[in-house]
Write a structure and sequence with these properties.
With 151 residues, the protein is an alpha+beta fold. Helix content is 30%, strand content 13%.
């Protein structure tokens, strides 16, 4: 089996070692040689002192990373307001009376993203307005006739 290598910084460290550290090993055994020119059965598989230094840096980095996990749900919640500012909603491109069956040419996409998300645009085609809307008004579910279930 060929050993895979991982680039950490600009030097190579065995992936198996880094993965084991990330998984929480308790003991890491390494063999060290002062020179690749030395003789002995362990020399080809041994780390040089520079490789050992790099391995220790990698292990310390993984330990820091594991000590400070990222809570993506909390970050997403913190950025919710910002996301609304930078995402887009579906709006009326022109004044539309109640009863209008929506077509693509009736709709536009604009910031902020506080209404129906722009990726839902095609789901609104063919839906009927139950209230009039003015140009640039956000299209909301409350303005639309309820969808009939196909079941």
């Amino acid at each position: 089996m060929r050993r895979q290598d991982l680039l950490i910084g600009s030097e190579r460290v065995r992936v198996e070692t880094v993965a084991a550290v990330a998984l929480g090993i308790d003991v890491l055994e390494v063999h060290v040689t002062l020179s690749r020119d030395m003789f002995g059965p362990d020399v080809p598989a041994s780390l040089t002192t520079e490789e050992l230094r790099q391995l220790v840096e990698g292990v310390r980095f993984i330990e820091k990373m594991n000590a400070h996990p990222v809570n993506k749900d909390e970050i997403a919640q913190d950025l919710h307001g910002m996301r609304q500012l930078f995402t887009k909603s579906i709006v009326a491109k022109e004044d539309l009376p109640a009863g209008t069956i929506l077509k693509l040419e009736h709709l536009a996409i604009k910031k902020p993203g506080t209404g129906i998300p722009s990726d839902q645009l095609h789901n609104l085609i063919g839906r009927r307005l139950i209230s009039s809307v003015f140009v640039d008004d956000k299209i909301t579910e409350e303005l639309l006739e309820a969808q009939k279930n196909d079941s």
